[in-house]
Amino acid sequence: MLFAMNQILLIEQNNELKIILSEKLRSLGLEVIHRNSTEDAIGLLQILPELSLVISRADRALEVCEFIRQEALPITLVVLGHCPELQGEVFFLPLPVDVSMFVSIVSEHFQIQETELQAFELVRHLESESLSADERISVQAQAQALAKEMIRKDGLISGAVHLSSTAISQIASMVLESTEIANDLRLVSTGKVSLEYQRCHLQIAMCHYILRKQNWYERKHLETMSFVSFFGDLNHEVQDHPLANFYARTVAEEWSLMSDTSEEFHTLSKIFIVADEFVRILLDPNLPSTKKGILPQLSTKYPEASYQKIIRCLEQSY
Question: Which of 133, 194, 223, 308 has its CA 20 to 30 A from that of 5?
Answer without folding.
Answer: 223
